From TrEMBL:
Residues 11-101 form the Disease resistance N-terminal domain. It comes from Vigna angularis var. angularis. This is NB-ARC domain-containing protein. The gene is Vigan.09G095100. GO terms for biological process: defense response; response to other organism. Gene3D superfamilies: 1.20.5.4130, Helical domain of apoptotic protease-activating factors, P-loop containing nucleotide triphosphate hydrolases, Ribonuclease Inhibitor, Winged helix-like DNA-binding domain superfamily/Winged helix DNA-binding domain.
Length: 1248
């Protein structure tokens, strides 16, 4: 483990947390007994003494191991102090009787006794004595700023790589005039430390093109200690090229104003950290004397700096990392001097390129490591760097360490603790923002907010600050706005800073040892520490037990809850997420009085113990996807500090009583309105702080309108998305007036953004739904409101962008009332509506068109399953881009010819016709003979030039493409159920990239691939007459990446048995009864194939001669008995994943010795109807096998041979009753052969 620097300001912030607890009124009032009060005051004094020298200790610990050890001892004691105070505070808050309580609390027989407190004081005394011996000093804060070299405007002699486009963009911004009339434009270059901001700015600053453009130039290194006098003087000195003798700010600024007046200038402010708007305003006043076109180019790691600049013309440029190729050029330019002979350079270059990958695009890292290795000639030296953590290198030899430490050093103390906490995540892990904030809160890393803010809002500010300082980077995840990554080097830094107090269990595999100082523990599935009980004895003071499902492999350990509950008493964070075999939580969970975060998501838990409600400090309880959970504990009201209760996708039937007492609740997925007073909807009145999305279910249990009013939804102003749900039931006793009263009194606040109403039983909607004052509402959904015959007037919802209407079985007409009410006649209907979805309206007959003002911005219109809808669609949809009509058999409509239409989908709506063809349409999916015929006729005299995706299905007519040619722009063609279609083969279809033919083209017996030279994907299914692919010997299909053929009973060959597709990655063949062989020379002609699937090809006997393609990784074989009984597969085959299905009636033992390739890491066997014996001999040579899965082999009873491969870590046996029984009883003939496997799963339960 690298040197620890958990000290200094970071530890100071922790001590401040302790001071806050010591000063809390609850603790002060609770502790009135003289002796402990005096002891706690002494402890506070001791901590004050050490706190003032922490900055000096932080600086010295890198070079002085004694100081490092002293800091670690202090940190360890502060953790114990915090644990003690937390327990006392908890008991103070929960103690019913204050009288004589202290004698109870500090009884010597109790865990936190007087002797415990005295022991801590004794250790602090020792630490104070050591402080004197170490000669640690109190360094004033204003002088305690780390030195760093100031960059200059001079360029390095080394070439700048990979920044051509970046420089061109910056140059363009520098040279262009301001577009908004401002004289001065500011161009901040924002990026993480070491990415090359200064280098890029320097290159721009010294570019010869600027000499003729700017009258004046100045380069100023601003740095973190902002001194406006110094910075302004430096500008003047840069301009006049001599010292400035002025000293007062006013004189200096007047002088600079005078020098810039009437000039076009370029000023570079390098390494800017200042965020104060007033300081910026003062600094930039002289800039206003320049002329238009003047520029200020700045570099910063913090985007907030750019936001503070007092100019409108600010064009932020985010500088990204270099590619590995460009980073290698930087590295090589520093590592290989011209004078170095050839010698072993080739080997060193190979190692160097692996080193460069660790730099992860940071040129500073590449430069530093390259420069360090410049004088190293031995291969051993380069390998040592490759295999070492960069933070283990001596600071004097590696500039990347100070570069990243600077980013860290300038963080406020509270952010330092948050940053270091992230070392618990594995590298490259996508950190979920909201989740991390909850963890920070649980660990007391988020300061108590000022009035008007929540803890969560403060945590979000912390996170956003770390992002703006480039310590986190946005992920490319599909919901990337909430997912972030830590750069590998930043992760190394966080790990380096975490020292012995933070531990990832994957470090165990590297030989790193865990010790008692560890307070925060995380692990992945393949570093599961639960199997080693000694670890828990060592880390009994740990505050964090955090499994991270990094490899998407579920955790399973039934013993974990009991072990952890009994051994880790100081936990703040406890997660059993993905412990799928965990069926219950032990009662001992209630003893974890420090616990603030508990995650039981994706477990098999069916009930929760009542002792859970003893967790006074619990802030977050996550039960997501606990599908077996039917109820919450009855005393939930005791969890008065609970802020987040996640219960989506559970089977909870009703809420516990008195939920109103949980008045700190911020996020609650849903509330089930109960029939009893103690869990009725009235309980919501006590939850005023709900945020985000919220759903109220079973509203049929609300029997009076006044009950709904007491929920006080109007007061819950932080709810953004509201769902109101009635259960779907047939009940003829519904009181329609009460239903209306209930919904009327559930009126939400006016800032609501999204509303969904489902199952409402009333006959009409309340007036508030038609109120145009809901100006923030963008999404509205109405579902299963079966008794409403009319839709509410929604046209006046000014911000409504998306409207969903479905299953409104009583609605027959959508008329003018849908668009506007009489009293809102001046409002243009649906002024913002972009998407309209109308589904499953069985009685809807007419859509009365409104005047042309409606739907002016509608882009997407979906109408589905409206079988009685007649007439036509609205005829004025000027912005329509997507039109989908499905299962509207009576709708008589013509496809609109609007020029904006890009996507068209029509199915089972035979009266919709193409009277004109939308010329700019890009995607068409149509189904049914009349529609297909209509489209073919419409394009007879028109050649679509934009159509790139065409799917046509289920047309029994004798049709062909006009001119016997596909549309010239077509890239994707899907045809299905067009038996009589004559496929155009006379021409080459150059642009076609994807072709799918299913149950079509009966006349087609051979598909000439030469007609599709640029095909990427080819799928042929259910073509009974297809016999072969036609391939000329010289043809090579360089674009083809995916090939699938199936259910073609007469398919016999890949013509010539050779298919040259050098970029093919997926090859799938199934249900081709006559196919006897795969394409020959697959090894050479299909070199990039990664996935091969063969199913129900009974005549296939062997794989092609020459072996499998070299990049093959996954092979799936289903019911190909001859193939499995044939010759051993070529030994050089390197695929790693094999899945084999039966029934294979002739195989009773498997596998034969030498049959399978030794490269396998995962083997799965399914449905072998006659398999009786698993042969260890046939598996022993699989030295890389990690997973073996056997399923539905009902006759399998034996495992013969010595044992399964020693490399195996997971054995799963499902629906194999004979073998399962022997495994369960640990049969003497079976168990020794499998007992070494770390994880053994039998029918979903882990027995080991």
């Amino acid at each position: 483990m690298a040197l620890s620097v958990v000290g200094g300001a970071l530890l100071s912030a922790f001590i401040e947390v302790v001071f806050d607890k010591l000063a809390s009124p609850e603790l002060v009032n609770f502790i009135r007994w003289k002796k402990p009060d005096k002891l706690l005051q002494k402890m506070r004094s001791q901590l004050l003494v050490v706190k003032v020298v922490l900055d000096d200790a932080e600086k010295r610990q890198i070079t002085d191991s004694n100081v490092k050890e002293w800091l670690d001892l202090l940190n360890d004691v502060v953790y114990e102090v915090d644990d003690l105070l937390d327990e006392v505070s908890t008991k103070a808050a929960t103690q019913k009787e204050v009288t004589n309580s202290f004698s109870h609390l500090f009884n010597r027989k109790k865990i936190f006794s007087i002797s415990k407190l005295e022991d801590i004081l004794g250790r602090l005394d020792d630490i104070l004595r050591q402080k004197q011996n170490l000669d640690l000093k109190d360094i004033p804060v204003e002088n305690n700023q780390p030195w760093k070299p100031q960059p200059t405007s001079l360029e390095d002699r080394y070439h700048i790589y990979g920044r051509y486009e970046d420089k061109e963009t910056i140059m363009k911004l520098v040279l262009e005039d301001s577009s908004d009339g401002e004289e001065v434009s500011v161009i901040p270059i924002v990026g993480m430390g070491g990415v090359g901001k200064t280098t890029l700015a320097r290159s721009v600053y010294n570019d010869g093109k600027l000499k003729q453009i700017f009258d004046l130039k100045a380069w100023v290194c601003v740095s973190d200690i902002f001194d406006i006098v110094k910075v302004t003087k430096t500008m003047i000195e840069e301009i006049i090229q001599k010292p400035c003798k002025l000293n007062d700010l006013n004189s200096i600024q007047l002088d600079l104003w005078d020098k810039l007046r009437g000039k076009r200038f370029l000023i570079v402010l390098d390494d800017v950290w200042m965020e104060d708007c007033d300081s910026w305003s003062s600094l930039t006043k002289p800039f206003l004397s320049g002329i238009r076109g003047s520029k200020v180019l700045m570099t910063t790691r913090n985007e907030n700096v750019a936001a503070a600049v007092p100019f409108h013309s600010v064009k932020v440029y985010h500088l990204n990392k270099l590619s590995n190729e460009d980073c290698w050029l930087v590295f090589a330019n520093h590592a290989f001097p011209v004078s170095r002979g050839s010698g072993n350079r080739g080997t060193l270059e190979k190692i160097g390129k692996e080193i460069v990958k660790k730099c992860n695009g940071l040129p500073l890292a590449a430069q530093s490591l390259g420069g360090m290795l410049r004088r190293k000639h031995a291969i051993r030296d380069w390998n040592n760097v490759l295999e070492s953590d960069i933070w283990e290198l001596p600071e004097s030899q590696c500039k990347i360490i100070p570069a990243l430490r600077i980013s860290y050093n300038y963080l406020p103390p509270h952010l330092k603790r948050c940053f270091v906490y992230c070392s618990l995540y594995p590298k490259d892990y996508k950190i979920q923002k909201d989740e991390l904030i909850l963890l920070w809160m649980a660990e007391d890393l988020v300061k108590a907010p000022k009035k008007g803010k929540t803890l969560e809002q403060v945590g979000k500010e912390y996170f956003d600050e770390l992002v703006s300082r480039s310590l986190f980077q946005s992920s490319s995840h599909r919901t990337s706005g909430n997912y972030f990554l830590m750069h590998d080097l930043m992760h190394d830094l966080a790990t380096f800073l975490g020292g012995e107090f933070y531990f990832r269990a994957d470090e165990l595999s590297k030989g790193t040892k865990i010790n008692r100082k560890t307070r925060h523990l995380s692990f992945t599935r393949f570093s599961d520490p639960v199997s080693d009980i000694e670890i828990f004895e060592t880390v009994k003071f740990s505050r964090t037990f955090l499994p991270i499902n990094y490899k998407d492999s579920p955790f399973n350990n039934e013993k974990a809850p009991r072990i952890i509950g009994s051994m880790l008493k100081y936990l703040r964070v406890l997660s059993f997420r993905d412990f799928q075999s965990m069926l219950a939580l032990p009662d001992s969970i209630g003893e974890l009085i420090h616990l603030r975060y508990l995650n039981l998501s994706y477990t098999g838990i069916a009930t929760l113990p009542e002792s859970l409600c003893n967790l006074y400090n619990l802030q977050t309880l996550k039960l997501y996807c606990c599908s077996e959970l039917t109820k919450l504990p009855g005393a939930m009201q005791n969890l008065v500090n609970l802020r987040h209760l996640e219960i989506l996708n559970t089977s909870i039937k009703e809420m516990p009583k008195a939920m109103r007492k949980l008045n700190q609740m911020q996020n609650l997925d849903f509330y089930i309105a109960g029939k009893h007073i103690e869990n009725s909807i009235k309980e919501l009145r006590g939850l005023p702080n709900l945020h985000g999305s919220f759903c109220i279910q079973k509203l049929e249990n609300v029997t009076q309108g006044d009950e709904a009013l007491e929920a006080r939804l109007m007061d819950k102003k932080h709810i953004n998305d509201l769902s109101l749900e009635w259960s779907i039931r047939n009940d003829n006793s519904t009181n329609f007036q009460i239903e209306l009263d209930v919904l009327s009194n559930l009126q939400p606040h006016r800032d609501l953004k999204s509303l969904s109403i489902s199952g409402y039983k009333g006959t009409r909607f309340p007036e508030w739904m038609e109120n145009c004052s809901y100006y923030c509402m963008t999404i509205l959904s109405l579902h299963n409101c079966n008794n409403c015959s009319k839709l509410p007037s929604l046209g006046q919802l000014l911000s409504l962008r998306r409207l969903h209407i479905s299953n409104m079985i009583s609605v027959k007409t959508i008329d003018a009332g849908f668009y506007k009410k009489n009293d809102c006649s001046s409002v243009t209907p649906f002024p913002s509506l972009e998407s309209l979805y109308i589904y499953n309206m069985p009685c809807w007959e007419a859509w009365v068109a409104f005047h042309s003002e409606a739907f002016l911005v509608l882009k997407d219109l979906y109408i589905q399953n409206c079988p009685k809808l007649k007439g036509d669609l609205p005829d004025h949809l000027p912005a329509l881009q997507t039109l989908a009509i499905r299962n509207c058999e009576l709708l008589v409509s013509s496809v609109p010819g609007t020029p904006t239409l890009r996507t068209l989908e029509i199915s089972e709506s035979n009266k919709v016709a193409f009277y004109s063809f939308p010329l700019l349409v890009e995607r068409i999916e149509i189904e049914g003979s009349p529609v297909v015929e209509s489209m073919m006729e419409a394009i007879t005299n028109i050649q679509p030039t934009c159509l790139h995706h065409l799917s046509i299905k289920d047309c029994s007519s004798d049709i062909s493409f006009p001119g016997d040619h596909l549309p010239i722009s077509l890239k994707t063609l899907i045809i299905s159920g067009l038996n009589k279609l004559k496929f155009p083969m006379q021409h080459k279809h150059e642009l076609l990239e994807s072709l799918s033919v299913n149950s079509s083209c009966d006349s087609l017996t051979s598909l000439p691939l030469v007609s599709f030279p640029n095909l990427i994907r080819l799928q042929i299914t259910n073509c009974e007459n297809m016999e072969s692919l036609s391939v000329l010997g010289s043809d090579s299909f360089k674009s083809l990446s995916s090939f699938e053929i199936g259910r073609c009973p007469n398919f016999v060959s890949f013509s010539g048995e050779a298919l040259s597709a050098p970029n093919l990655t997926r090859f799938i063949v199934y249900d081709c009864d006559k196919l006897k062989s795969l394409p020959n020379q697959m090894c050479t002609l299909l070199p990039k194939m990664e996935y091969l699937s063969i199913s129900n090809c009974q005549q296939l006997e062997s794989f092609p001669e020459g072996g499998m393609p070299p990049n093959l990784r996954i092979v799936e074989i289903n019911n190909c008995e001859k193939l499995l009984s044939g010759q051993p597969w070529v030994s050089k085959d390197i695929f790693t994943y094999l899945k084999v299905w039966g029934p294979c009636d002739g195989i009773n033992s498997f596998p034969k010795e030498g049959l399978l390739p030794p490269s396998l890491t995962s083997l799965q066997l399914f449905g072998f109807s006659s398999l009786e014996t698993l042969e260890c001999k046939g598996l022993l040579h699989l030295t890389s096998l990690r997973e073996l899965h056997i399923q539905s082999c009902k006759k399998l009873a034996n495992i013969v041979g010595e044992r399964l491969p020693i490399s195996l870590i997971k054995l799963s046996i499902n629906r194999c009753p004979l073998l399962q029984k022997r495994c369960h009883i640990k049969d003497r003939q079976i168990w020794p052969k499998i007992s070494h496997v770390r994880g053994i799963n039998i029918d979903g339960r882990w027995i080991q």
